[in-house]
Amino acid sequence: MPSALPKFCVVIPCYNEQESIPVLVEKLTPVLEEATQGDWQILFVDDGSKDATARLIWELHAKDARFNGIRLSRNFGHQPAVWTGIQNARAACIGVIDCDLQDPPEVLIQLYKKVAAEGFDICAGVRGKREESPWWLRAAYLVFYRLMRFMAEHDYTLDSGDFCVFNARVHEALCRLGEATPVHRGLRSWVGFKQTTVTYQRPPRQHGVSKYNLTRLAVLAINNLVNFSTAPLRFATWVGLGMGLLTLVAAALFLINRLFPAFSILGYHVGANAGTATLVLYLSFIASALFFCLGIMGEYLAVIIKEVKRRPVALVAEKTGE
C-alpha cells in the first residue's frame, strides 16, 4: 500500500541558486517542521542551472528524503519550471515559493494555514511595497495588474505572483489543464474555487540576481494578457470600425465642402489644392492602425501555434530517488 500523502509540499523553481538554497533551507525547514509536525516535502525544480544548484539539491535528498529534486534538460524558463513542479507535486496542500527569500517562509505558513485550517482552496500572497524595485518598475507592475484585472475574463488577483498555497482539489484541476504556455498566477485565479489572499511586504533579494530582466517581464506580461483576455483582439475590431466611421465622416465633410464652398473644415477647402497632405496623413494613419491590429493578432497566432504543436512544457532529465 502506498504511504499517505504528506501534509504540505513546497515547489521551488531554481536557476543558478547555489547561494540561495542553503539560506532558504535554513529558514524554511524550521517553520515547515512546526506547521506540519514534520510531515512535509520540498520539491526543487532545477531549470537547467549552470552552477552547483543540482548538486546541492541531490546532496539534500541524500541526507533527508523529504527534499526532492527535478532537473530539467535545459533552461526552459521560470513559468515552465513552476508548472513542472506543480505537475509532479503530491500532497494534501501544495505551495509555490521562489528561492530568493523575497517571499518570506513565515508568510508561506500563513498561506498554508488559510488553506489547511480555514477552509480556503487557494491562498495567494499579495505583494505590498516592493523595496528592491525602482519607481518606474513599481509603476509598471501597478498598471499591469490593474489592466489585467480590467481586461481578464475572470477575477484576476491583483498584485499577486506565483507565491501561493492550494489544496489537492485545485491541484487536480490545474493538472487537467493542457496549457502549452502556462502562466501559473493566471491559471490559479482562473480555476476559481474559494480563494483568499494575504498581503505582505516583499524584502530585497538577499543572494544572487533576479532572472527576470525587462525582456522576460515583458514576455510574461504579454503571455498573461494573451492567455486570459480577448480584449486586445476585440480592440482591433473596434479600431477597424472606428477608422471606418471616421472615414465616412471625413468623406461627408469633404462632400459638403465641395458642394458648399462657404463651409470649410478647419479653414481647409477641398478645392484649394490636390489634397496631397490629407492623403498622406490618412494613409499613414490607416497603415499604422492596420499594423497595430496585425501585431495583436500575431500574438494570438503565436499562442495558437504553440497549442497546436502540443509540445510538453519542459522535459525532465532526472529525478531524485530514481
Structure description:
This protein is an alpha/beta fold and about 325 residues long. The protein has two domains: about 10-210 and about 310-320, Spore Coat Polysaccharide Biosynthesis Protein SpsA, Chain A, CATH 3.90.550; about 230-310. The chain is about 50% helix and about 15% strand. The protein has ten helices and eight strands. The protein has helices at about 20-35, 55-65, 80-90, 105-115, 135-150, 170-175, 185-190, 215-230, 230-260, 275-310; strands at about 10-15, 40-45, 65-70, 95, 120-130, 160-165, 195-200, 315-320. It has an eight-stranded mixed β-sheet, sandwiched between helices. Helix 2 (about 55-65) links the parallel strand 2 and strand 3. The longest helix is centred in the last third of the chain and has 34 residues, at about 275-310. It starts with 7 loop residues before the first strand and ends with a strand. The mean pLDDT is about 80.
State the gist of this model.
By secondary structure, the protein is an alpha/beta fold. It contains 10 helices and 8 strands. The longest helix has 34 residues, at 276-309.
For this entry, give a set of tags.
322 residues, alpha/beta, Spore Coat Polysaccharide Biosynthesis Protein SpsA, Chain A, 2 domains, eight-stranded mixed β-sheet, 10 helices, 8 strands, elongated
Largest sheet: 8 strands, mixed
Q: How helical, in percent, are the residues?
A: 40-55%
H and E order: EHEHEHEHEHEHHEHHHE
The percent range for strand residues is 15-25%
| pLDDT < 50 runs, ≥5 residues | none
| pLDDT averaged over residues | 78
Oligomeric description of these chains: single chain
- Proper CATH architecture of the largest domain: Alpha-Beta Complex
Q: Order the strands across the largest sheet as they lie in space.
A: 7-5-6-4-1-2-3-8
Q: How many helical elements?
A: 10
Work out the number of β strands: 8
Query: So what's the CATH class of the largest domain?
Result: Alpha Beta
CATH topology of the largest domain: Spore Coat Polysaccharide Biosynthesis Protein SpsA, Chain A
What structural class do helix, strand and pairing data support?
alpha/beta
What number of domains? Answer: 2
Rg over C-alpha atoms, rounded to the nearest angstrom = 26 Å
Distance between the termini: 20 Å
**Backbone shape:** elongated
- Spell out the CATH superfamily of the largest domain: Spore Coat Polysaccharide Biosynthesis Protein SpsA, Chain A
